[in-house]
Amino acid sequence: MSQTLTIEALQERVETIFRKSGLNAIQAGALSRVIVAGERDACKSHGIYRIEGALRTVKAGKVNPDAVPELVDQKASSIIKVDAKGGFANPAFELGVDALAERARSNGLAALVINDCTHFSALWPEVEAVTDRGLAALVMCPSYATVAPTGGTKPLLGTNPFAFGWPRSGGSPYVFDFATSVAARGEIELHRRAGKQLPEGWAIDADGQPTTEPEAALTGAMLPFGGHKGSAISTMIELLAGIMIGDLTSPEVLDYLGTTTLAPRHGELILAFSPEAFAAGRPGDPFARAEALFEAIAGQGARLPSQRRYAARAISREAGITLTADEIKQLDRLEDLGLGSVA
């Protein structure tokens, strides 16, 4: 039988699972918040589904469950750094976001660099944390090598997510968050399980030839979205959020993990901008001008990104989050067995 929980109750359940599995309060709390945000916003692929992957990564010894991230604040710089100490990215971000916002307001722009972290879940919760502070944001990170560059034949780039947010007074921010691959690796796995062929243009096989067979794609490589354009953006992310911040690139991540079944370890780059500072001395209010643009888009019948998430969020806040009987059983099992629930 399905069960409906409040956002707070689900947060408590998920945090209990992580605490019983050996994560400290800092790590467990931050991971629980982002997982529950996924369920709250009906993003099932980033909700409780992700708990097992986090536990599997802990069990494999590839992430530090006791990590206490450290803020390395260079006072004279617009660059704020957080050493995640081998833990998950989420608590490191939570530690650094206020310093990032303060420096962006003072200087017009600032960067938060997170090093030595295990990336977990989507980027939009981090983007929204910045827009909640009245700032625009860009967030990016590499992954592990599962994507071939356009014209290439072997995995080299990651799915390399990229997110942007713009604050809106009195309403939900304008946010997009997407991988730079044509499809997520999980989508290929779902096609395999369902016995379905892939759409053309999603993947190549181990010999570099186009394929619509999921099995061949999983042993080959995914492709970037938009051909050479997506390939170039993905390469930019490797450069900015890997090499420039002194952290791992996607091929190095795969070498470190030896598998794509664990959460990837690398760095993350968050950029924050003050629209008021950039527009100072120029005519017009940047926020009012942005609203005019959004209204023009919606006026043509187009949907702004994240609108479905926001609608689902409103329902969850009012009526709670409904989980299926199987999902409740999964939570029970994870809480009872902890790390013993994963191979």
Walk me through the structure.
With 343 residues, the protein is α+β, with helices and mostly antiparallel strands. It has 3 domains: 1-59 and 306-343, Malate/L-lactate/L-sulpholactate dehydrogenase, four-helix barrel (Hypothetical Oxidoreductase Yiak, Chain: A, domain 1); 67-179 and 226-305, Ribosomal Protein S8, Chain: A, domain 1 (2-Layer Sandwich), CATH 3.30.1370; 183-222, Hypothetical oxidoreductase yiak, domain 3 (Wheat Germ Agglutinin (Isolectin 2), domain 1), CATH 3.30.60.50. Helix content is 44%, strand content 16%. It has 13 helices and 12 strands. The chain has a 7-stranded mixed sheet, sandwiched between helices. Strand 3 (79-83), helix 4 and strand 4 (109-118) form a beta-alpha-beta unit. The radius of gyration is 20 Å and the shape is globular. It starts with a strand and ends in a 6-residue tail after the last helix. The model has no long low-confidence stretch (mean pLDDT 95).
CATH names the topology of the largest domain as: Ribosomal Protein S8, Chain: A, domain 1
Strand adjacency order, main sheet: 2-3-4-11-5-6-7
- Compute the average pLDDT: 95
Helix percent reads: 40-55%
Terminus-to-terminus distance = 27 Å
CATH superfamily of the largest domain: Malate/L-lactate/L-sulpholactate dehydrogenase, NADPH binding domain
Q: How many β-strands, per DSSP? A: 12
**Tally of structural domains:** 3
Strand content: 15-25%
Organism: Pararhizobium capsulatum DSM 1112
Family: Belongs to the LDH2/MDH2 oxidoreductase family.
Keywords: Oxidoreductase
Protein name: LDH2 family malate/lactate/ureidoglycolate dehydrogenase
